[in-house]
Amino acid sequence: MIDANKREWLKTAAKAAALGLVAGSALVGCGKKEEAAPAPMPATQAPKPEPLKAAWVYVGPVGDAGWSFAHDLGRKAVEAHFGDKVQTTFVESVPEGADAERVIRDLAAQGNKIIFATSFGYMEPMLKVAQEFPDVKFEHATGYKTAPNMRIYDASFYQDAYMAGIIAAHMSKTDTLGFVGSFPIPEVLRNINAFALGAQTVKPDIKLKVVWVNTWFDPPKETEAAQSLINQGADVLLQNTDSTAVLQTAEKNGKYAFGWDSDMSSFGAKAHLASAVVNWGPYYIQAVQEVLDGTWQTKRTVWGVKEGLNDLIKIAEVVPEEAKKKVEEIKAGLKSGEFEVFTGPIIDNTGKEVLAAGVKADQDWKDKVNFFVKGVDGKIPTAQ
Question: How many C-alpha atoms does 261 have within 13 Å on its Cβ side?
């Protein structure tokens, strides 16, 4: 038997033990609260990368037609494709020479990482600036010199000119065509010769007269040259200049002409037979993407109808179906790569064979064109 005193002692001990357990539990609970991890901080977003800065240099005003206009459409295609990843700018009406060097250097100093110089005469100025800014990518249109950070790109305008020649021969009543030339360089000479060769597939004895203006953009000079050709009997004109003056002069005289570099159909609807156009957008998008990817390399790119860069569009309703069909056949051959405009035999206008029968001209041959083909009147000026 347990006496009363002992029972009271056991009860008291049991209560004390129970209280100790409760207190211990409370302390453990309090300890957990004190050691709880602080609330997580809001996640910080990585800073948005700065856009790639890209710049273009134009030899003429952008305007609403022609060479510089076509390049600016390409620049806008870059903006539309990349959005805020790329920031573009341009400088228009930059003369070739010292002014071009100053403008290109200034664009590089402003942080542009790729610069496109869009005229042949920008080659030497760009080459000089490229040496001063090794981290900038430089692109020169229609040139032939490169550097570790400078490459060249070109279009096959002569393909458009050849197709235009086919149409011109069908439309001419005097069997005399006219060409307003800018400078006597291979690029322009190819276009003149291709225009003549295309026409000769329709009329072997057709003649082509050329007037040089020694400028890329000068509407008064272009007008004067076009009028001179018309006065010499030319009734269908093509040009290698930047404005719509040749087309408009043809319309005023009741003659025919073509748009050049861009769609010019709205500038002389009655005279307009077709427009030889160039779409720079795909090339510019590719070049900018290569800079963004870090894959840009020095090279030479020459695209044409096959790559979708060149085309002859807006052929007028007055052009005979026979001519339209022939143009489509040539265009299909150019797209497939089966047809080459400069395929021998090709004879110059002095009677010398410059490309043997059956031979297709390579790019090196095209780069060195310094002659008129048979059927083109006159001599190539040796000094500007």
Answer: 26
Q: Nearest to residue 257, comparing CAs of 275, 242, 277, 237?
A: 237
Q: Are strands 310-313 and 272-278 parallel, antiparallel or unpaired?
A: antiparallel
The identity of residue 257, as a single letter, is A
What CA–CA distance (Å, rounded) separates 167 from 161? Answer: 10
Q: pLDDT of 178-233, one tens digit each? A: 999 999 999 999 999 999 999 999 999 999 999 999 999 999 999 999 999 999 99
Residue 332's contacts (CB-CB under 8 Å, 6 or more residues apart) are: none
DSSP string, 6-50: HHHHHHHHHHHHHHHHHHHHHHHHHHHHHHPPPPPPPPPPPPPPP
Residue 218 near residue 181, CB atoms below 8 Å: no
Average pLDDT over all residues of the chain: 91
* Better-predicted residue by pLDDT, 110 or 15: 110
Q: Which domains does the chain have, with CATH numbers?
A: 52-156+281-303 (3.40.50.2300), 157-277+309-367 (3.40.50.2300)
Q: Tell me the whole-structure pTM to 2 decimals.
A: 0.86
Residue type for position 66: G
List Cβ neighbours of 198 (8 Å cut-off, separation of 6 or more).
Answer: 161, 162, 163, 164, 165, 166, 168, 169, 330, 341
Asked if pLDDT for residue 253 goes beyond 60, the answer is: yes
